[in-house]
Amino acid sequence: MSRLVRSAAILLVALAGSAAAQQRFTVGVQGVYADYRETSASLKFTGGGVGASFGFALHKFGADVSFASIKLTPVDSTATSGQDFTAKVFDANVRWRVLGQVSGEIGVTSRKMDPEFAAQGFGAVRIGGRGVVNLGPGADLTVRAHYLAGAKFSGGGTASFPIDLGLAFSLGRADGRLRVTGDYEFQSINRKTSVKAPVQQALMRVGASLGF
User: Residue 7: CB partners within 8 Å, gap ≥ 6?
Assistant: First the structure.
């Protein structure tokens, strides 16, 4: 009986060690540039800020969370309909690798404005996937595509088919411990109230990540 217990304990330790070896945590910081547009040309804003991210991976499972705070100003300084505001962008996703380097993914995205009604606050559920291409030792390219389900706006309205597209790169040590990262994300939201009121947002992030 004691031999069986010892064997089971050794097996559990081996399995735990194997899982620990395959899991990875990643922490990153980024500088962020944003381009935000609403219905008319006068409602175009650009600006920059800072962001942070956290990721976790274990076997086929992965998850990530990111946050950015961005100060935006009107491109047309003479426009009376635009004012400076700060956008706080939050994203969280979980995924499961289904085939090779292709994963199904679901998550949430939100954008809150300060002042609240300076631009459209937004929230939705992400449904889509991503694919990773290994370009070489320490170099990866990631492509993402999501449908933004259940979109809600601070100013009201609906959207029949809002989408979110992304392209990211990672370059550095092959073991992933230190990497330079870049990410481009584009949201196209065909918002409609009593009239068409589309919203577009583009975010470009450049930074570094530390894996452990």
Answer: none
d(CA 50, CA 206): 10
Specify the pTM.
0.85
Buried b / exposed e over 121-148, threshold 16 CB at 10 Å, is bbbbebebbbeeeeeeebebebebebeb
Cα–Cα distance, 170 to 79 (Å, whole number)? 39
pLDDT digits (tens, 9 = 90+) for 157-199: 999 999 999 999 999 998 889 999 999 999 999 999 989 999 9
Q: How far from 62 is each of 2, 95, 112, 123, 162, CA to CA, in Å?
A: 38, 5, 26, 22, 24
Q: Which residue ranges form the domains of the chain, and what is each CATH number?
A: 24-211 (2.40.128.100)
Give the Cα separation of 45 and 49 in Å (integer). 13
Six-digit token string for 153: 């706006």
* CB 22, CB 59: distance < 8 Å: yes
Residue 20 has pLDDT above 60, yes or no: no
